[in-house]
Recover the amino acids of this structure.
């Protein structure tokens, strides 16, 4: 019975590489910089995006070479989803790691890559590139990471 489920309803550990990549909702929110309080370890959200992020499409402009260009770029994998505390609660990997279903704006549910933007869940329309932002502590936002 389990095999008839679509891959986005199966356990993360059972996904192959293509399914793993396809699970991403394309929100781009994991590509925003976080400000960390050195004393408490707390993270604060900002609207400052990685310089490689396309602010219209919410896509990385050099995904294949991202680790070369941005060494601290997060690479989510089977073993680290639980450890990344700042992933947004809407992140498809976090949802599935917690046994939750995807939101109806996820393209795998809606069939439309624009749904994530239309639902206001992506970085489109309210973010700025780190190349233009200056001090990120001037860009703290009252929004979850
Ligand atoms: S937050 Fe999660 S779903 Fe959104 S772009 Fe990043 S990895 Fe993909
Ligand atoms: S290098 Fe690409 S995937 Fe990594 S944080 Fe920057 S835009 Fe996102």
């Amino acid at each position: 019975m389990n095999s008839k489920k679509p891959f986005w309803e199966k356990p993360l550990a059972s996904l192959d590489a293509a399914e793993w990549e396809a699970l991403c909702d394309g929100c781009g929110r994991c590509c925003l910089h976080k400000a960390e309080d050195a004393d408490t370890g707390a993270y604060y959200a900002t609207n400052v995006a990685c310089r490689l992020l396309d602010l219209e499409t919410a896509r990385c402009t050099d995904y294949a070479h991202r680790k070369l260009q941005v060494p601290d770029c997060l690479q989510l994998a089977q073993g680290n989803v639980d450890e990344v505390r700042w992933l947004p609660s809407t992140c498809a990997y976090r949802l599935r790691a917690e046994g939750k279903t995807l939101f109806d704006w996820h393209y795998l549910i809606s069939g439309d890559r624009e749904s994530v933007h239309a639902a206001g869940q992506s970085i489109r329309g309210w973010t700025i590139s780190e190349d233009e932002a200056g001090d990120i502590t001037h860009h703290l936002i009252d929004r979850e990471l």
